[in-house]
Write a structure and sequence with these properties.
about 500 residues; alpha/beta; UDP-N-acetylmuramoyl-L-alanine:D-glutamate ligase; Protein-Tyrosine Phosphatase, Chain A; six-stranded mixed β-sheet; 21 strands; globular
Length: about 500
């Protein structure tokens, strides 16, 4: 149910076809809109029964297994009909947990999960070169493609995997054959409230990542996060560890910062130094949110059996994760940051804090997810004057403007709202009304403060783009094109 265009539905269809199953694919979109996904199935498409542009109740009542795309609401009447008919209703994450044989780390949370997954994979590949990574945000490695790759790999049962699981995927994982050996919840902020009736329902979906864990498995929680008590009240059976930017109480096991040094306490009465003050100081410019991601990465790798010493040897080559505070251009005067995956107000707030030492030109706006923007507006007012705030029109943008007006942000100017991304990108390079001025991608002489053009929408993308990845790729392409034009002019 839901072939989609991002690759997950294609991977799931292929997986069932390889097993020799009879597969029906149903999607509300037309064959024309799904043409790239159908082509990606290759010859296998001839073995698929397509029901496109509609759903039929009969398909949900007669097929044995109903596999719901993560975007399908759990309360869908079609899924209800399938359950009433006694059919098994699952998703790709449930199938993955049923079938994957190797050691497994799974990461969820509102912010930082993609970065954490990528960093865990990078650090652990020093010990496990064949380690697999993928999941929710990876179009190249959806869960069931990752499952296929693990089956093809030599010695697959001992090859670990690290996967990202969204709240949508976690809605249907209860009752799977196994749970993650190491489960991680990075943090929790309001998000996807257009899908969940309140934040507690959203948090409950996240909690499914550990609900079926055993006492031999591990759960990592963020001791600094306000929602951690919510998860602890669900009484995890697994061993619980914490990360924190402050010293942990002696009763808690985990990894923490004390006096600028990183320490770990994995057993009662035993503490070891993980990173020196000097080593941590070199990472300070990443922002507190990324330091937390790093602590989580180190702890997850250690609980998966790799020593802190081995993990630390690969810290200097940690990759930048695309579209997550990704620096796509930098010279001594100007930095351009693509944070298109920053789809919530909290993401933009974190990015503003990270780049606050520079003069920020913020590009934001998009599609609403039933979120509030009061705190976002306060952060914008603190870091960005109105002449350096550029907004892309959308349902969330209207709420952003209202939130800013409520705190007196636009007293002397009107909001700058653009209908297209190229127009907004071009405007980011125009001179601002007050000095210091930015001209042709460079700060004018006499201004020594570096400038950051920060594309951090703080909202979803669906009114104008396929998804945040499509939005991010187009932003980078427009910036490259504009750089090329300006260089020719100069």
């Amino acid at each position: 149910m839901g072939l989609g265009v991002l690759g997950g539905g294609v991977a799931t269809t292929r997986w069932f076809l390889k097993r020799g199953d009879r597969v029906t694919v149903t999607d509300l979109r037309s064959r024309a809109k799904l043409a790239p996904s159908i082509r990606a199935l290759g010859k296998g498409a001839k073995r698929v029964r397509f029901v496109l542009g509609r759903h039929r109740l009969a398909d949900f009542r007669t097929n044995n297994i109903i596999v719901a795309n993560p975007a399908v609401p759990r309360g869908s009447p079609y899924l209800a009909a399938a359950r009433l008919a006694g059919k098994q209703v699952v998703n790709d994450a449930h199938i993955f947990l049923d079938e994957f044989e190797g050691p497994l780390i799974a990461v969820t949370g509102t912010r930082g999960k993609t970065t954490t997954v990528n960093w865990i994979a990078h650090l652990m590949r020093g010990a496990y070169p064949g380690l697999l990574a993928g999941g929710n945000s990876s179009a190249d490695m959806p869960l069931l493609k990752l499952l296929d790759d693990s089956a093809l790999a030599e010695g697959s049962p001992v090859i670990p995997a690290v996967v990202e699981l969204s709240s949508w995927q976690l809605e249907l994982v209860r009752g799977a054959r196994r749970a993650p050996d190491v489960a991680v919840i990075t943090n929790l902020y309001p998000d996807h409230l257009n899908r969940y009736h309140n934040i507690r329902a959203y948090a409950a979906a996240k909690a499914n990542i550990f609900r079926d864990q055993t006492q031999d498995q591990a759960l990592i929680l963020n001791a600094d996060d306000a929602w951690t008590p919510f998860f602890l009240k669900r009484k995890p059976r697994s061993r619980v560890f914490f990360i924190s930017l402050k010293p942990l109480p002696k009763s808690k096991r985990g990894i923490y910062v004390n006096g600028g040094t990183v320490f770990a306490r994995l057993t009662a009465g035993s503490t070891e130094r993980v990173l020196s003050r000097a080593a941590l100081a070199t990472l300070a410019s990443w922002g507190d949110h990324n330091i937390r991601n790093l602590l989580t990465t180190l702890l997850a790798g250690r609980l998966a059996g790799v020593s802190f010493r081995s993990l630390s040897t690969r810290l200097s080559s940690l990759p930048t994760v695309p579209l997550r505070e990704e620096v796509i251009h930098q010279d001594r005067h100007l930095t351009v940051v693509n944070d298109s995956a920053g789809t919530s107000p909290d993401a933009t707030t974190a990015a503003l804090r990270r780049f606050q030492k520079s003069r920020i030109i913020l590009l934001a706006g998009g599609t609403d997810k039933e979120l509030t923007f009061g705190e976002w507006a306060k952060a914008v007012k603190h870091h960005v004057p109105p002449e350096r705030l550029l907004l892309l029109e959308g349902s969330a943008t209207k709420k952003m403007v209202v939130a800013l007006r409520c705190i007196g942000y636009f007293r002397k100017s009107a909001p700058q709202v653009f209908t297209t991304l190229p127009a907004m990108v071009r405007a980011a390079w125009k001179p601002t009304t007050d000095p210091p001025r930015l001209t042709s991608g460079r700060v004018e002489a006499g201004n020594r403060q570096p400038t950051t053009i920060l594309f951090s929408p703080g909202a979803a993308s669906f009114e104008k783009f396929k998804n945040e990845f499509d939005r991010g790729r187009k932003f980078t392409a427009y910036c490259v094109r504009y750089f090329t034009e300006k260089k020719k002019e100069e």
